[in-house]
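WARN retry 2 of 3 for item q-0093 after timeout on previous attempt; input resubmitted unchanged.
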Amino acid sequence: MLVRKFENSDAGRVAKIMFESFRSFLGARMRSDKPESEQYWINCSSGENGHSVTRAFVAEENGVVIGYIRVSADTNSGLGILHVIGVDPSVFSQGCGRALFQAAETFWHDLHMRKIHTCTSHINIRAQAFYKKMGFVEEGRLRDHFFKGVDEIQLAKFYE
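OK item q-0093 returned
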């Protein structure tokens, strides 16, 4: 498996992976029956604005993208964000998420982050287990956040 920086040509495959990944736990709660546009993934996958840096990485196997992660770092506060991670459901639990997360950790370490935060739905048991394996701890909950009846669990990982 190869992990590399996101390229614009990856956007179509990333859109499909992210849609299927979220559908795997949200099911009928999905607000759309089609993936976000390729342009959406291109626009949100990189950028620098003063002290804020955003990067995205993909994992590929045999030349096919099988996972995506988008992260950012605030170099003033030392606070990093794991915005989103998604893996093709056909390769769940085969190391893709861990490989993507390792690329993100290198990014955060290089920029001297002290804390990383993310959130996941309380119904996404697979993601909760993944984040705990990666060293995250629960910090709080946002009740009925994106969907009525679905809480978001706030998680953090500390490097200091």
